[in-house]
Amino acid sequence: MEFIKKLMEFIKAVAADERIPPRDKKVLLALTALVISPVDIIPDWIPVIGMLDDVILVAVILDYLFNVLDTEILLSHYPWGMKSFTRTRNAARLIAVITPNWIKKRIWKYEGSIYKG
To answer: Which of 19, 67, 103, 116 has a Cα at 20 to 30 A from 76?
Structure first.
């Protein structure tokens, strides 16, 4: 339960960061609310497919946090250690493969540093 509390505080802190465009903040919080909410786009009682909407939403959120945002912004709010950050970032990159590029380009307005590698 402590992990969930820290995770929610982390997402709220990132969403409140002034370096992030207001539209991205709203989308990030809305997607997080959809994941937490018992209301689903596809009902969970449908085998396999029922969980798909939650998986895609989590993939979109993780992709934004770990692949769109600059690392400096993320690390300024990250409540766990650097080792955890590296593992989570690597996992997020794997999961983000299922996030279509057209969705990312359509919903996110953040433009990172030109020096981002």
So the answer is: 103
